[in-house]
Amino acid sequence: MAFKRNFNIMARPVTLLGHLVAISIAVLILVWILHFREGVAFKSDNKLKILNLHVLLMVIGLILFGGQAIMAYKSIPAKKYWRKVVHLGLHAIALAAAIFGICMSFKFHRDIQLKNLVSLHSWFGLITVCLYGLQWVVGFFAYFFPGAESRRRASLMPWHVYFGIFVFLMATCTAELGLLQSLDTWFLLGHTQENLIINFTGLLIFLYAATVVLTVILPPLY
Amino acid sequence: MAFKRNFNIMARPVTLLGHLVAISIAVLILVWILHFREGVAFKSDNKLKILNLHVLLMVIGLILFGGQAIMAYKSIPAKKYWRKVVHLGLHAIALAAAIFGICMSFKFHRDIQLKNLVSLHSWFGLITVCLYGLQWVVGFFAYFFPGAESRRRASLMPWHVYFGIFVFLMATCTAELGLLQSLDTWFLLGHTQENLIINFTGLLIFLYAATVVLTVILPPLY
């Protein structure tokens, strides 16, 4: 494919687009949860607030921070070591948010006595978080501490990139499934403002993922 | 990224995995539609048969044939010209199935008097098919007939590949949304056989997409 040679734009401007899309998604999710829904809570008699916390942690934590972590190598004007630290740190935040977010969804299910792990969304989500954790641990030991020997690092790198993108896109797909599921049942859907906000959020999340992946395959600015 | 240099496996065995996954998906979808649902029909008093035709055309037509079209450059042991003809032909079949499939879903909506283009699934689907058609037309004129001049072809190629993968993954995501939506409402979900079949189909479709994308970035066998 020789992507690197042929693409005629650089990664840096695309990371700017990524940041803009990320901000738009954060705004839409906050408007949705705070204005159209009841806000968030860790403990509440209004159980939907717990589910909203799940949504917030997953979209802003896992998707937005995870995407920023992937783009870090192209967006941060610093030495390689510091970009790696940011990459690792942001992924740790994303992973922690995802684990906490999944706990919230189990808590919500327990509180309103719904069965766990029934929907396609839940299957995708649990697999995604397990793979995300695995990828983080392997990445940490291979590239940060103690670090594998140089040849092994190099031969692992394309797999690290491919598998990382795979897991990120699986997280994206899980988010889309969650957004669809949040409108309860499609026979109840209507052209309400909330419906439109959810659909636009879904499109923007997909655009964000496409932008993040593009920054990975584009050559860096320097 | 220099994927090509570093990956330590070739595309051909991965295309075999792709074929196996494709067959599994086709079997699961057929079992689902023919055994658990009422089968397919173009015209019927049982309107769900029309929706089933939509599912069949989208999964087997758009996703499976589309994926085979993408893999054609790595899976077919023939000269470049014939691989291109197969690539173009399979994508044409996929696109035709998708357009026909979308018509079936509009027909289903009209027959049971549901509003069109409300759900996230429908938004993703319509955008996907428009982009798929655009990609096909641009690809046809740039690379088949009359064909752009050589330098222009080369500089367009990474974008053709990136955009093609983008559209294919969007189709994949749309299929996942459709599978989730097909179980009406998540409060009605249960650990039924049908639910399990749908979830496993969803996972296999994602695995198929990941396999197809991997064959694109891996070096060919020859």
Set out the fold topology.
Two copies of one chain form a homodimer.
Chain A: H1 3-6, H2 11-36, H3 48-75, H4 80-111, H5 120-143, H6 150-182, H7 193-217
Catalytic activity (chains A, B): Fe(3+)(out) + L-ascorbate(in) = monodehydro-L-ascorbate radical(in) + Fe(2+)(out) + H(+)
Cofactor (chains A, B): heme b
Domain Cytochrome b561 (chains A, B): 17-217
Q: Would you write up a description of this structure?
A:
Chains A, B: InterPro entries: CYB561/CYBRD1-like, Cyt_b561/ferric_Rdtase_TM. Chains A, B: Pfam families: Cytochrom_B561. Chains A, B: Keywords: Electron transport, Heme, Iron, Membrane, Metal-binding, Transmembrane, Transmembrane helix, Transport. Chains A, B: Its cofactor is heme b. Two copies of one chain form a homodimer. The first copy, chain A, is mostly helical. The first copy, chain A, has a single domain, classed as Four Helix Bundle (Hemerythrin (Met), subunit A). Chain A has seven helices and no strands. In chain A, helix 3 runs parallel beside helix 7, helix 4 runs antiparallel to helix 5 and helix 6 runs antiparallel to helix 7. The longest helix of chain A is centred in the last third of the chain and has 33 residues. Chains A and B meet through helix 1, helix 5, helix 6 and helix 7 of A and helix 1, helix 5, helix 6 and helix 7 of B.
Query: Do you know the CATH topology of chain A?
Result: Four Helix Bundle (Hemerythrin (Met), subunit A)
| CATH-scheme architecture of chain A | Up-down Bundle
Q: Per DSSP, what share of the residues of chain A sits in E-state strands of 2 or more residues?
A: under 5%
Name the CATH class of chain A.
Mainly Alpha
SS content category of chain A: mainly alpha
Rg for CA atoms of chain A: 18 Å
Order of helices and strands of chain A: HHHHHHH
